Amino acid sequence: MSLSTEQKNSFASQLHAAARSGHQVPMLTAETSFSMVEAYDIQEALIQKRIDEGAPLVGMKMGLTSLAKMEQMGVDSPIYGHLTSDMLLDDGGTLDLSVYGHPRVEPEVAFIMAEDIKGPTTSAQVALAVKGVCAALEVIDSRYENFKFTLNDVVADNASSTRFVLGTELHPVDSVPLGNLGMVLEVDGEPAQIGSSAAIFEHPLKSLAALVNMLATRDRGLKAGQIVLAGGATAAVALSDNQRVRVRVQGLGDASFFTK
Ligand code: OOG
Ligand code: MG
């Protein structure tokens, strides 16, 4: 049995309303089962609502690309999500947590694309389409109760995407050993998670290539100027009020924000 367009739209509306209110909903799969392809259909319908509200698409993200994240969430394969302009938070900015349900933060790196690219591709090829790489933080917040979901549920919920911060230093991908950069997530100046970019799908460029190849299955690609978050390098850390959160990435500088 497949979902009707109306049903996909209704699921997208429920998740959109939950994201806007900071309230949680039960997992969609508790009501109806659906395929991974349908989960991405729901995600696209959800993103269209944000775009219609005036927040254009600015990029994409990979999620569940590290073992630490897969173990934390109890799922076992990478997924992608969409990033819209209203998810951007300035480096050093303040995040008001009152509008979110149970936000968490992850240390990441982000790419900015120099050229359009469509799969099939490889890590080596995709590097040629990248303008540069920077330190990044991603704030995720599941719209599901207790931050619990199946893979199809989290795909429908746009991979828990909520906000993200990019560092100010953009470096060419071949100017650093991108496959193994030390990464420290600090909360109030203390290390909360320590990892390496090697944890991001073995290499962040491998994660980027996997994204481009996944998009190709839906006849889509990346566009010049788009941002891509490569995926969290460590388990995510729960946020609370009045914190200073910073990621430091070896060779790439840092990115930070305050919570209130
Ligand atoms: C899904 C999103 C995971 C990452 O970097 O692994 C993600 C979740 O854990 O809620 O963004
Ligand atoms: Mg992430």
- The total strand number stands at 13
The oligomerization state is single chain
Helix-strand pattern? HHEHEEEEHEHEEEHEEEE
CATH superfamily assignment? Fumarylacetoacetase-like, C-terminal domain
Write down the overall mean pLDDT: 97
State the CATH class: Alpha Beta
What's the overall geometry?
globular
- N-C termini distance: 45 Å
- The CATH topology assignment is Fumarylacetoacetate hydrolase, domain 2
Q: Pairing-aware structural class of the strands and helices? A: alpha+beta
| The CATH architecture | Alpha-Beta Complex
Parts with pLDDT < 50 across at least 5 consecutive residues:
none
Radius of gyration from the alpha-carbon trace, in angstroms = 17 Å
Instruction: State the helical fraction.
Output: 25-40%
Number of helices: 6
Proportion of residues in β-strands: 25-35%
